[in-house]
Design goal:
about 10% strand, three-stranded antiparallel sheet, 4 helices, 3 strands, mainly alpha
């Protein structure tokens, strides 16, 4: 029996096995079955997936709104995208730019830089 345990559970390491024993002790003391744990995990995974889907929808909606606000590329009329530049003024950011407009079309090379942060630019765009 010892060899079977060593073979099957060795991938978890000694610390993992100690955690397993602790977990079993807690489950036994609280009268929680392994099936209860399986049901909880299934519920938690479903909730996590729902949250992820909701998050992805929120991001897509925000991106769509940002594209409307940023306007279209003057070269190809594709919606512009905007991103924050995190590098402070210095060697990597000589002019101190804080935001960057760029065309969403991979074949177009249009880009425009601004010294104003995205937050300020968005406020200005909303006022238009």
């Amino acid at each position: 029996m010892r060899e079977k345990i060593e073979t099957k559970l060795s991938v978890f390491g000694f610390g993992g096995l100690q955690n397993l024993v602790t977990l079993f002790n807690i489950l036994e003391r609280e009268n929680i079955s392994i099936n209860d744990v399986r049901q909880f995990i299934a519920f938690a995974l479903k909730r996590r997936e729902e949250n992820e889907i909701g998050f992805q929808k929120m991001i897509a909606k925000r991106d769509k709104e940002m594209r409307k606000l940023a306007g279209n590329c003057p070269k190809c009329k594709t919606p512009l995208r905007i991103r924050t530049i995190h590098s402070p003024k210095g060697k990597a950011n000589v002019y101190g730019y804080r935001s960057h407009y760029f065309c969403g079309n991979e074949e177009c090379d249009y880009e425009k830089y601004s010294k104003e942060p995205v937050k300020i630019l968005v406020k200005k765009m909303v006022r238009r």
